[in-house]
Amino acid sequence: MKQQFLICLVGAAILFALAKVLAPAPIASMAEPVPIFRKNDRILFQGDSITDGNRGRTLDPNHILGHGYVFLLAAKYGAAYPELNLTFMNRGVSGNTVEDLETRWQQDTLDLKPDILSILIGVNDSTKNVPIDQYARVYDQLLADARAANPNLRLVLCAPFTLPVGAKKEHFAEWQGIIRQRQEVVAKLAAKYHAALVRFQPVFDAACQRAPAEHWIWDGIHPTYSGHQLMADEWIRTVRKFWPTP
Questions:
Q1: How do the residues of the chain divide into helix, strand and coil, expressed in percent and rounded to 5?
Q2: How many percent of the chain have pLDDT more than 90?
Q3: Domain ranges of the chain
Q4: Euclidean distance between CA atoms 209 and 206, whole angstroms
Q5: DSSP code for 244
Q6: Beta carbons of 96 and 68 less than 8 angstroms apart
Q7: Which portions of the chain are predicted below pLDDT 70?
Q8: Between the CA of residue 131 and those of 122, 128, 134, 136, 148, what are the distances in Å?
Q9: Helical spans, DSSP H, in 23-131
Q10: How confident is the model at residue 11, as a pLDDT?
Q11: Could you give the angle at which helices 172-192 and 132-149 cross, rounded to 10 degrees?
């Protein structure tokens, strides 16, 4: 009887040890992203409908950041690093061009005193035929004003992108060429202002090797929820590489 009891005891100990070895790591530690922000950072996202994401216009925290890449970024880092007291702000407005940004730049950007300013603008400039030199000039001035207000401002410039979906399939080569011009302007401005340059186009192009273009962008311009996740991931990857330490 005593021998049987000892055998059971040893067996239980072995099972307990195996359970500890085979137990999965806590989900939170597996998912925790690499830090890319500093304590008390104010992170502002500016742009058009892709950034807007149907965001709320009240202080309701459930909707204030919209339902796109901005929300995904804020959710990820807000949950992983609550002790950093990060403030994420979205001031994207559907339909905006750089000239629209200019009219609200003081109130919706400078007055908010961001530490990091991320901008994605250009697709509406293309559909509304804003001349490329005007696009470049106004965009340049916006960045100059932002840096003058805060010389330590960290800039993240996101290049516009497209895929041949919906109405954009027709004459896509021409449309793609127009978007490429805007991408080149953004790249030059990023170099001039020593800003992190987020190139979304190669990411979407590569994603089309895994699934049809319609899976990532539903109308040639606006991403699906899957596309927004690609954007969030690429934004994080680019910023983390550009500023290796927060």
A1: 55, 10, 35
A2: 83
A3: 30-242
A4: 6
A5: S
A6: no
A7: 1-31
A8: 11, 9, 5, 9, 26
A9: 27-31, 49-52, 69-80, 98-108, 123-127
A10: 52
A11: 30
Instruction: Extract the tokens encoding 60.
Output: 């309701």
pLDDT at 4: 54
Asked if CATH classification 3.40.50.1110 holds for the domain at 30-242, the reply, yes or no, is yes
At 57, is the secondary structure helix, strand, or coil?
A: coil
pLDDT in tens, 114-148: 999 999 999 999 999 999 999 999 999 999 999 99
Say how many Å lie between the first and final Cα of the chain, rounded: 64
Tokens (6 digits) for 184: 């080149």
Q: What's residue 86's pLDDT?
A: 98
Q: How far apart are CA 135 and CA 99, in angstroms?
A: 8
How many whole angstroms separate alpha carbon 116 and alpha carbon 139?
Answer: 17
- Alpha carbons 85 and 75: distance in angstroms, whole number: 13
